[in-house]
Amino acid sequence: MKILDWYILKRYLFTFLMMLLLFIPIGITVNLAEKIGKILENEVPFPAVAQYYLDFTVYFANLLFPLFLFLSVIWFTSKLANNTEIVAFLSSGVSFSRFLRPYMIGASIVAAFALLLGLYLAPLASKGYNEFRYKYLKKNSNVIETQDIYRQINDHDIIYVSRFDPKMKRGNKFTLEHYDGNKLEYKIFADNITYVEQDTTYKLTNFVKRTYDENDEVLESIRRYDTLFKFDLDDLTPANYMAETLLYGELTRFIEKEKKRGSSNIGRYEVVQYKKWSLPVSVFILTIIAVSVSSIKRRGGMGVNLAFGISIAMVYVFFDKVFGVMAEQSDFPPLVAVWFPNVIFGMLALYLLYNAKR
User: In this structure, are 214 and 304 located in the same domain?
Assistant: First the structure.
């Protein structure tokens, strides 16, 4: 039976690799055709472009990983069914569960790769990919201002900015409150706050500081005031893609830090965190569905299996995206949003597997 295992396992891994090698160049070509004008306009050096598309390859592969796997398994299993090879295997006394074993071995290898990709390789690629986009491809575009930033930056300080422009590194109506326990010690107001990158200081306009003690209140007012603060520029404008660029340990610490600060993007960050674990599990679920659907020889041939498989894959991607957006934009639990598609399609996989065995 080892011959059967090696035969199916090699076809499983080889077809998946070929599917990646087929679609990734297409993705690169489409992306290059769309971005070539800005690349030439901004005179981007070739090494930077080459590194960008290396990062894009990893980013693109991680993004569409389940779809590639699902289609590859349906493709080569349908070919086995059309060549009546599956009938020969099962007629020789091999149970369907035993026939499925090399698929599960292949799924374990791919799932381990997906875990490695999600925990380590994809964050590094996402960082380079996004940094290139914002440095060369979006540098002349309008930057959306961040409004009504209210954050606890540590155990003692809370800041508020009514509007912050990341491009100009300037905010309006800045307030900082410093507490000792539950007691407000002082409060700083400024009409404008500007980050001076050269010396990492902040320039405040119409600076006012109110210091409170038990019996009195001290007021200090200065027209222009330069100072240091215990927060970074990222505390005012954390990038939306920040979570995607962090290794898992860094991401966990980042989420805990943002929770203490009262960030409104916790749902977005936790979706990224949970998907690092849900994606490897989806490899097994999609493999079982693909084998169950395509192991039967149908009158319409491989085309029917592919059409049915692509429909299921599109529904899976739809569920994944819709629930992900719900978690990012509302109070919907991120853990439920990420794992719900796997639960639903896991039950579908068990149902299809039961019927395939029959």
Answer: no
Residues paired with residue 243 on neighbouring β-strands, in sequence order: none
Residue 243 · residue 254 · CB < 8 Å: yes
Residues 187 and 274 in one domain: no
182 and 128, same domain (yes or no): no
Token pair, residue 238, equals 């954390």
Low pLDDT (below 50) residues in the chain: 140-145
Burial class (CB in 10 A: 0-12, 13-18, 19+), 231: middle
> Tens digit of pLDDT for each residue in 175-189?
988 888 888 888 999
Specify whether 52 is located in the same domain as 131: yes
Query: CB under 8 Å to 151, separation ≥6 — which residues?
Result: 158, 159, 160, 235, 236, 261, 262, 263
- Domain count along the chain: 2
Q: Are residues 66 and 99 in the same domain?
A: yes
With tokens 């070919």, the residue in question is 79
Q: Are 27 and 60 in contact (CB under 8 A)?
A: yes
For 277-288, the DSSP string reads HHHHHHHHHHHH
206 occurs within a structural domain: yes
In a domain, 258, yes or no: no
Domain end position, chosen among 230, 249, 278: 230
Q: Which domain holds residue 172?
A: 154-230
Q: Exposed (0-12), middle (13-18) or buried (19+): which is 7, by Cβ within 10 Å?
A: middle
Same domain, 159 and 133: no
Distances (CA, A) of 341 to 1, 15, 157, 313: 35, 25, 40, 11
The two tokens of residue 188 are 């700083």
Same domain, residue pair 60 and 15: yes
Query: Is 213 strand, coil or helix?
Result: coil
The answer to whether residues 124 and 10 belong to one domain is: yes
Q: CA torsion sign, 300 to 303 to 306 to 309? A: negative
- Bridge partner residues of 192 (DSSP): 172, 205
Residues in the chain: 358
pLDDT of residue 240: 63
Per-residue pLDDT at 144:
47
- pLDDT at position 301, please? 64
